[in-house]
Amino acid sequence: MSVVDHNAIDALPRISEADVGDYLALLKPRVMSLVIFTALVGLFIAPGHVHPVIAFTSILCIAVGAGASGALNMAYEGDIDALMSRTANRPIPRGRITQGEATAFGLILSFFSVMTLGTLVNWFAGALLAFTIFFYVVIYTMWLKRWTAQNIVIGGAAGALPPVVAWAAATGSLAMEPLLLFLIIFFWTPPHFWALALFRRDDYARAGIPMLPVVAGPDATRLQILLYTIVLVAIAAAPWPLGYFDAVYGVTSLMLGAGMMWLAIEVYRHREGKQAQRATRRLFAFSILYLFALFATLLLEVVIRAVAAMVG
User: Name one GO cellular component term (predicted).
Assistant: First the structure.
């Protein structure tokens, strides 16, 4: 009668259960869609003509770099993802993908996205993309997120860099326009994520993440949301009077800004019960629309200018 060596069986390499969908989930496709769109705007508003192949390569590399950042983020945060209802169904907590597999996947994507952008487009853009990945994975994920309640504020720089990388890919340099786009996304990030953190406060507390509502409390968070929204609306409108963007953008930014301000005030006013939950959820949802609509208006301005040039 044979004896089964369970230790030997446990030591055998595990056959991965992951499918294509699991690896796509590692890329954080929702976040990637925002990265692609803001980068596309940065590319299109850049001066001069960009060859379609260069444009496609640039956006693809930025998208893959963003996906690589997401995969490395999930690889490092598998332990806390398992404790939060919002993230418990991600591939690593479900046991579909191991931490090692996700790390290898993210590192490979990071290497090829940076090298491809540097080799085929320009090395300045490649270096900026490498810095973006490093900042998100090392500075934000490994350090800030578990250490300080200002994690979203400082870490938001990584999410604000894609249009800057795209501009650099198109021009090989920097200018005020992409820096203004950077500032808009940078100051948009805290009210957007703190609205989410308000109605996911218990999740973050259970996982031990020092998000602002957990550390400073909901009321302090509501005040910070309002203050950052005021700065955001002012910065988003500033490019119009400064002459960088046209009136179509300026009027749209003021209208969208009024919506953001009203919802931020509602979050500040309503602090208990269903009204408070409804206010934070509405601000979170509208903030996504706000950023997409603001950047879509810039694309519209590019089209208007192109048509005017053809007619003229």
Answer: plasma membrane
Give pLDDT tens digits for 66-121.
999 999 999 999 999 999 988 999 999 999 999 999 999 999 999 999 999 999 99
Nearest to 294 by CA among 222, 237, 231, 225: 237
In this structure, the chain runs to a length of 312
Q: Tell me, yes or no, if the pTM score tops 0.85.
A: yes
CB atoms within 10 A of CB 161: 30
Q: Report whether 292 contacts 260 (CB < 8 A).
A: no
What whole-number distance in Å separates Cα of residue 26 and Cα of residue 56?
Answer: 22
The pLDDT score that the predictor gives to residue 126 is: 98
Alpha-carbon distance of 11 to 269, in angstroms, equals 58
Residue whose structure tokens are 């379609």? 52
Instruction: Tell me which long-range contacts 278-282 makes (C-beta under 8 A, separation of at least 24).
Output: 280/195, 280/196, 280/198, 280/199, 281/195, 281/199
d(CA 261, CA 177): 24
**Please, what is the Cα angle at 184 between 180 and 190, to 5 degrees?**
150
Whole-angstrom Cα distance, residue 69 to residue 106? 7
Question: Per-residue DSSP letters for 63-112?
Answer: HHHHHHHHHHHHHHTHHHHTT-TTTTTSTTTTTSS-HHHHHHHHHHHHHH
- Other CB atoms closer than 10 Å to residue 118's CB: what's the count? 18
The H or E element spanning position 290 is helix 273-311
The C-alpha atoms of residue 48 and residue 41 are separated, in whole angstroms, by 14
Domain edges within the chain: 19-172, 175-312
Angle at 220 between CA 73 and CA 227, to 5 degrees: 85
DSSP state, residue 177: H
Whole-angstrom CA distances from 35 to 24, 41, 270, 279 are: 15, 10, 32, 26
The DSSP output letter for 14 is P
The architecture CATH gives domain 19-172? Orthogonal Bundle (1.10)
